[in-house]
Every structure is written in C-alpha cells, then in structure tokens.
Amino acid sequence: MAILSAANILSLAAFKARASEIINGMKVDNRPIVITQNGNAAAVLLPPEEYDALVERAAFISSVEAGLADAAAGRTISHEDLAAEAKARYKA
C-alpha cells in the first residue's frame, strides 16, 4: 500500500475540477487519493488492483480467524479421520 502525501489529499471541489486528470495520474503512480469534504476525509479512491488486494486480504484474514475460532472451540478432527473422509469422498 502506498504512503499518502499532501499530493494525494484533495478537496472534493479540486477532485471534481480535475477528476479525469487525477484518475489518469492514479493509474500511473498506483497511489490512493483521499478526498476531503469540509476539511475531513470523506472518501478514498483506490486503483482497482489495490481494492481487489484489500478485499482478498480481508477474506483471507476472516477465514483464518474462523479457523482459529473453530480450533479454540474444539471443532477439529484428527489427521486420520480427515484422510479417511477424503478417501471416501474422492475415492482416492
């Protein structure tokens, strides 16, 4: 993830006035843009690849957390039981 600088923080009015230029520049430098409204951060514009990476990372972390919760709650099976289940299911 890119580090933000003052060049990556724009008011909504500035973004509206130069939207096409800003989006084209973002495609080149692959850096997010923070859009402010009334001096406060209101939105973040990300390149599609950065957004996809964030969504994928969040899904991965969620899956790991679910697995850890299952393990902590004792919802596990032995290696032998898993191997037997896989063999029965996939006739391997």
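Second entry:
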Amino acid sequence: MLSSPNDRQKLLNGCKELSNSMTRVEAEKDYQRDAVSHLSQELGIEKKYINKVASMYHKQNFHQVQTEHQEIEDLYEALTTKPATEPTVL
C-alpha cells in the first residue's frame, strides 16, 4: 500500500492539509449559522427563509428556483384536483 517512507510522508502531509481545510470549513459553517441567527432575530424573518434567499443569491439561480416551484405547484394541483369527468363515489 505505502511502498516507501516518502509515500507515507506524502499521505500524512495530505491528511494534515485536509484536516486544516476541514477546520476552516467548520469555522465558516459556524459563522453562517451565527449570521443567519442574528439576521433572523434582528429582522424577524425565519431562519429557513434567510438560508434559502442567501443560497439563491449565492448561486444566482432565482429564476430556476421559481420555475421549479411552479412545476411542483402544477404537479401537486394535478395530483390533488379531481378531474371534472371523474365520477363521484358515494
């Protein structure tokens, strides 16, 4: 598997770098949670909505999300609305 001390050192160095990166990611996630919580309390907006808007802003995909929501609404209405030709069962 690790055929030489040099390969072992490369893997160890890589693991250290990955661990450092994971630590930075965890810190950023903590910051994001704190920022969302602060905005929610300050503005009276639910956290889930702040997260969704921030995600759309980051991805710049508002129109895609809007289209998907419309398709979901249409599908739900098609599923739950009884067609006029369907007989009523008593």
